[in-house]
Amino acid sequence: MVYCGKPSRGCQMCRTRRIKCDETKPTCNQCAKSRRQCPGYKDEFDLVFRNETKATERRVLKASRKALAQTKSSNPSSLTRARTTKGQTSSAAILPTLTLPVEETASCHFVANYILLPRQDGTRGFNEHILPLLKAEAPGGHLHHAFNACALASLGNRPNAPCSGSDLISRALGHYTKALSATHLALRDPELSKADATLAAVLMLGLFENITAKKMGMFAWGSHTEGAIQLVKIRGRKQLRTKTGFNLFIAVRTQMIIHSLSTGTAPVMGVEWWLSDAVRDEGIAQCQRLAIKTAEIRAESARLTSTLPHNPENVEIMLDMIRRAQTIDHELVTWLQNPPKHFEWKTVTWEDHVPGGDYEKAEVFPGRVDIYRDFWIASIINLARVLRLTLANIIVRSAAWACSPVDYRTTPEYATAARTCVDTITDIIASVPYSLGWHLKRPEILERANLSGFACGEEDSPKGLPGYFLTWPLANVYGQDYATDAQRAWVAGRLKFIGDELGVKYAHLLSQLNLRVPSMLIRRDALMANPQGLDAHRLATRLASPKPGPGADLLSQLQAMQNDVMERDKHKVEQGT
Known about the structure:
Layout: E1 2-3, H1 12-17, H2 29-33, H3 44-48, E2 49-50, H4 53-74, H5 78-82, H6 91-98, H7 102-114, E3 116-118, H8 130-136, H9 142-157, H10 165-188, H11 196-212, H12 217-235, H13 243-263, H14 271-275, H15 282-307, H16 312-337, E4 346-351, E5 367-371, H17 375-403, H18 412-435, E6 452-454, H19 464-478, H20 485-500, H21 506-511, H22 519-529, H23 536-544, H24 554-575
Helix pairs in contact: 4-6, 7-9, 9-10, 9-11, 10-11, 11-12, 11-13, 12-13, 13-15, 15-16, 15-17, 16-17, 17-18, 17-19, 18-19, 18-24, 19-20, 22-23
């Protein structure tokens, strides 16, 4: 890749005619006035960087032919050894010349897998701030080391790594250590601590923890996220005045939401602080607004169910908690039914076959398969679905506390939540094949809007970023009371695929979590409310096994619900709706 300087962003026709383009999208007014067909606009990355691979190949071929001619004149017998068939290129001569150092290969691999660039106004990418910041920072800076650590680790985790994976991981850890040291020094400096590169380095260090997932990796990611939140707070509203600062703020906000929801802690600062003056798309901002509200009510619910004594006044508090969660859930339903225009998704097929009956190895779970316009959109839709699962668990947990000692599985709140979660789990599962590359083998059914794309590389191979996006939704499905054994086995297989094939080792940790919600939380609340006479052995037994009762046939009820959902979805697919 060769840097081409500041580019002209005009359409190709205006650039050819050498006139000023007004850059109207999707077609410019200059072409419309002259009744010419506007060819559209090049990708911004392609404008800034020119791919010199083909030119390099031509130069190498030319040099090879020249060397061959010289050899022929000096030693005619060598012609036989060097001759190739007609139309065949001298790839053996080219490949050694074009071999890149492993660090550069790792960098290209990372950019092609984890840097998603927006291609139309109003859409968002992921890590799009990294390339300009790397260009601005001197080599050997903390951001360069953090980037190299992620790049080498990502490549080393792939099964087709160009050299020993352990060697790449060892090099990655070396860069990680240097990045930590340099970042700590930057944080002590009043000016450097507020720099874009410092915040970007902290975010990259968090990503490294998820890619490698060493011991306690998930907790290390949380500590980096908390550090990024504090940096954003220190940087203030001034950071929103630049494009890079704005993108970094949104990136931290997204990580903050996931961290708060996964740990049950209240978000630092409130909804207005995170969303005031930091909205690019109101429809997307509404989803994140509801996510922050959900994180706040989840933290409050956990605190109240663990500390409030059981009396009529506090029962009313818990009933109010249920009403508030239902209100947020209603807003989420409205958002999902009327998403931003470019967020629409489509069911493209129905799959019934499970190869060999092994759900863990199946690419598709029996049911529908949905296609989205890009991976980032799929991640936002799945965020909204995970919020619905979280709110349903808050409602059931609050209902269980309020109606204790009556079995909560006899309440109408439980029945409604079970139906909601069964439907939502089905929706999340239907989105997974697209994110993990199922559509790449079936281009005839894919209708992509080309809203965003990776910074380089081909778009026809499974990427690490969509797998990274999926780890949290899949972990939520895996831990739900309402998921069937077949669904859990399939989700475990998909997490294993993300860890083994896409190199996001954090997925392995998530598949090993032995958690069932909300039942385990409800049993813990009951034990906290009445701890007398419980020794450690009885406590562990009661936490690990559900209490028999009216809900003992729960699995068959959930299976029946899932069958109903599958029949309904199959009918819709057959009807073409």
